[in-house]
Amino acid sequence: MxxxxxxxxxxxxxxxxxxxxxxxxxxxxxxxxxxxxTPESLWMLWLFAGVTAAQAGAISLMxxxxxxxxxxxxxxxxxxxxxxxTRRGSAVAYHVLLAGTILVxxxxxxxxxxxxxxxxxxFVLVLGEFTRHAVVLFSYRRGWHG
Amino acid sequence: MAxxxxxxxxxxxxxxxxxxxxxxxxxxxxxxxxTIAAIEAGKYSPTLEAAFRIAQVFGKPLDxxxxxxxxxxxASGDPAxxxxxxxxx
Lengths: 146, 89
Hints:
The complex is a heterodimer of chains A (about 150) and B (about 90). Chain A has 5 helices and no strands. With about 150 residues, chain A is mainly α. Chain B is mainly alpha-helical and about 90 residues long. Chain B is globular.
C-alpha cells in the first residue's frame, strides 16, 4: 500500500469517530439541537470545533508517523495514477456537495432555520469529505482507469 | 468496471529483463511500485506516455508490451472502443 493511500485511510478513519461523536450528540440532544441559535446553544459550535481539531490533530500525527516510515516515498510527487484517483475523488465529492448545498441553501430554508439548518450544512460538508476519501480508497483498492 | 480490451506482458518482460522488480520499473518510468502492480493486474490503464516509457525500458515495440484484443466493451455494448490507454482485463 502506497503512502498516499495510507493517508487516505487515516483521514477516513479519523473522520468516522470524530463526526460520529458530533452528530450522535446532536441527535441525542433532540429539540435543543433543532431550535434557534442562542448563547446557551453555542456548545454545539464548540463541540464541532473540538472534534474537527481532534480529527486534524490525529491525522497530522499519523501523517508524520507514516511519513517517517515511508521515507523517500512520502516526499516524491504524486504519480499519474495517484493524480487520476485524486481527481476522481474530488469530482464525485463535488456533485455530493452541490446537491447538498442546493438542499440546505435553497430547499430547507422554507421550512427550517437555526441549528437544524446549521447542522444540515455541517453534515453536507462532512458528507462531501467522506465521499471524497471513500471514492479515493475505492479507486485504490478496486482500480481506476483514469 | 468495463472489461478492458487490453492485455500486457509486463510481468513476463520484467522477469526476462533480469528479474526486474516492480519498484525498479516504476522508478525507471516515474511511477510508484503500486502503480506498476495495478497496471499488471489490469486495475489501472497507464497514460500513453507511461506506456511508451515502459516499452522503452524493455526495448520492445509498444504492441509487444500491450496488446489490443478488440473485444466488445461490456459497459457500453459497443464493439471495440477507441484505443487511448492500455491495461489488462
